[in-house]
Design goal:
By secondary structure, the chain is of the alpha/beta class. It has an 8-stranded parallel beta sheet with strand order 11-10-9-8-5-2-1-14, sandwiched between helices. The longest helix has 22 residues. Bound molecules: erythose-4-phosphate, phosphoenolpyruvate and manganese (II) ion. The site of manganese (II) ion has 5 residues, from loops.
Length: 457
């Protein structure tokens, strides 16, 4: 994208029009002038992603909508500045690449790989405040806004953090681009992605067997004269919740070729369950940018509201533009999803349907830790696939919170983590994530579901 000298944005532009609408879940920035100054700096910063990459992802998502590809989207609930390290980034990437191999092998469909990475620094919260004893302070809203430490100083929203969010996103994206194009993501490295992870995990062993099978297939193709060097790079996109509209607006750019506005902070942005109000600022902003976008749908999403979201966000009915990420909870998904899918189908719209099996299944353990049961996560995914199978529609993929680290945040899985283990490595800055083994377990179990009910004949 060519960047020309910026004129002040018009009132009715994508970068400005949302200001006339109520914006939910925005920090109470104590110093408006400081916010304006940082946002001003960001309006002249280079874009993190390019419009052509966003268009490419929109085409990939169109394949998901048509049932010709599967989406794998995952990463931390909340990225942190402290964990913007090579190890942490590589660990998440390796985990996603491994999961993608498992899913590709099972479905024989391309897997569109999208990290919750390089921008996932802001969090909506159930409560604006947190109380500890007598002391009440603003809730932690992600590293983009304030610190986790429970002091008035740390919890004060600081606009300089938006600048740091941009820099950490750029650092992360730089490493992702290097790793995915520089040989690390080469399919001929399929064994290497398992290294550094828990050696004795059943999922790891199962993965190793699959990797051997892939090796043999590659050797066979090579022997037949196929140039397997083509498999040397992986296509990988980044995504985050488009929550902080001052930040997103500051990074909005117009493509001089096609005249459309793009959020250039990430390829795909989603609108959260708490900010999808039809009359709110988030829907206004996202209706005006051309990126592929997603909307979370929780158990209270009314079918009529979903249809209105479709009209606002995808008025041209462009496959790949809109993804509905359903996070109803394991006990609700089978009841709620059919009506939503049927209504959208009756409208003749082609959207991507994706399951987020995490956010409807959060519980508090006796120890006080926020956690999720692996079985509930799996059950929601199963319900999601069953509903689509019954309706003859495509279960487009999954959106999960995970890390490559060996954390103990969700209970269950192959190497069963017990509620009493949670304290051992509970490191999330917000919601509990699947660890590496649990992530692979989920990929294998989802692969089985897809194999039982192939989408394409
Ligand atoms: O990630 C999602 C939300 O930000 C998170 O679930 C909110 O958590 P809270 O209920 O602790 O505020
Ligand atoms: C905030 C999140 O989810 P939801 O909006 O679905 O609650 C999230 O994905 O971290
Ligand atoms: Mn979360």
């Amino acid at each position: 994208m060519k960047i020309s000298k910026r004129e002040p944005e018009a009132k009715n532009s994508a970068a400005e029009s949302w200001r006339d609408f109520p914006a939910a879940q925005q920090p109470d920035w104590p110093d408006e002038a400081e916010l304006r100054a940082v946002a001003g700096e960001l309006t002249t910063a280079p874009p993190l992603v390019f419009s052509a990459e966003c268009d490419l992802l929109r085409r990939r998502m169109a394949a998901v909508a048509r049932g010709e590809a599967v989406l794998l989207q995952g990463g931390d609930c909340a990225e942190t500045f402290a964990r913007t390290t090579a190890d942490a980034i590589r660990g998440k990437l390796k985990t996603l690449l491994q999961m993608a191999v498992v899913l590709t092998h099972a479905t024989a469909l391309p897997v569109v790989k999208v990290g919750r990475m390089a921008g996932q620094y802001a969090k909506p919260r159930s409560s604006p405040e947190e109380r500890r004893g007598e002391l009440v302070l603003p809730s932690h809203r992600g590293d983009a806004v304030n610190g986790t430490e429970f002091t008035a100083e740390a919890r004060r929203p600081d606009p300089k953090r938006l600048r740091k969010m941009y820099e950490s996103s750029a650092t992360t994206l730089n490493l992702i681009r290097a790793l995915t194009t520089g040989g690390f993501a080469d399919l001929r490295q399929v064994h290497a992605w398992n290294q550094g992870f828990v050696a004795d995990s059943q999922a790891g062993e199962r993965y190793e067997r699959l990797a051997q099978e892939i090796d043999r297939s590659l050797a066979f193709m090579h022997a037949c004269g196929v140039d397997t060097r083509e498999l040397g790079t992986a296509e990988f996109f980044v995504s985050h919740e488009g929550l902080l509209l001052d930040y997103e607006a500051a990074l909005t750019r117009t493509d001089p070729e096609n005249g459309r506005s793009y959020a250039t902070s990430g390829h795909l942005l989603w609108i959260g369950e708490r900010t999808r109000d039809l009359d709110g600022a988030h829907i206004e902003y996202f209706s005006r940018v051309a990126n592929p976008i997603a909307v979370k749908l929780g158990p209270t999403a009314a079918p009529d509201d979903v249809m209105r979201l479709l009209d606002r966000l995808d008025p041209n009915r462009e496959p790949g533009r809109l993804t509905f990420v359903v996070r109803a909870g394991a006990d609700r998904i089978r009841d709620l999803l059919p009506t939503l899918v049927e209504k959208v189908n009756a409208e003749g719209a082609l959207v991507c349907w994706v399951s987020d099996p995490m956010h409807g299944n959060t519980i508090t353990a006796a120890s006080g830790h926020k956690t999720r049961r692996f079985d509930a996560i799996l059950d929601e995914v199963r319900g999601f696939v069953e509903v689509h199978q019954a309706l003859g529609t495509h279960p487009g993929g999954i959106h999960v919170e995970l890390t490559g680290d060996d954390v103990t945040e969700c209970v269950g899985g192959g190497n069963a983590i017990l509620p009493e283990d949670l304290h051992q490595r509970y490191e999330t800055a917000c919601d509990p994530r699947l660890n590496h083994t649990q992530s692979l377990d989920l990929a294998f179990l989802l692969a089985e579901r897809y194999r039982e009910h192939p989408t394409r004949s």
